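Lab notes, practical 5.
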Amino acid sequence: MDTNLALTIIGSVMTLLGIVFISVPKAVNEKTIKDLPSDAVNISALFRAANGGLGLALGMVAIYCRNLPSEYAATVLLSLGTGFILVNAALLSGKLRGFSDELPLPPMVIFLILTLIAYYSALS
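Output from the prediction step:
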C-alpha cells in the first residue's frame, strides 16, 4: 500500500475518533462503559475528551505527513504503528491489573487494523 494512502486512512480514522470523543464524550462513555457511576460521569467525560485531543493530534500528524517522500513517511508509519501497539498494550494492562473485567474490543480492533496498515505500508 502506498504510504500516502496509508497515512490518509490512519489520519482520517484518528481525526474522526478524536472529533467524536471531543464532541460527545458522555455518549461514547455510555456505549463503552457499562454501569458508570453517576459520580464518575463528568470526570470520565473529561478524560475521554482529552483522549479525543490526542487522537485528533495523531490524525493531524498523519494527514500532514502524507506527502513526505516514502522513506520519511515509512518512519512516521512505523512510529504510528508502534504507538498503536502501545495503546493496545495499555488497554490490555488495564484488564490484567484488575481495572475492568472487560476488554474494550472495538478500539483494540481499530488500533490493530491501523497497526497492520502502518506496518504493511512502511515495510513494503
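Observations recorded by the TA: The first helix runs from residue 3 to 23. Residues 3-123 form one domain.
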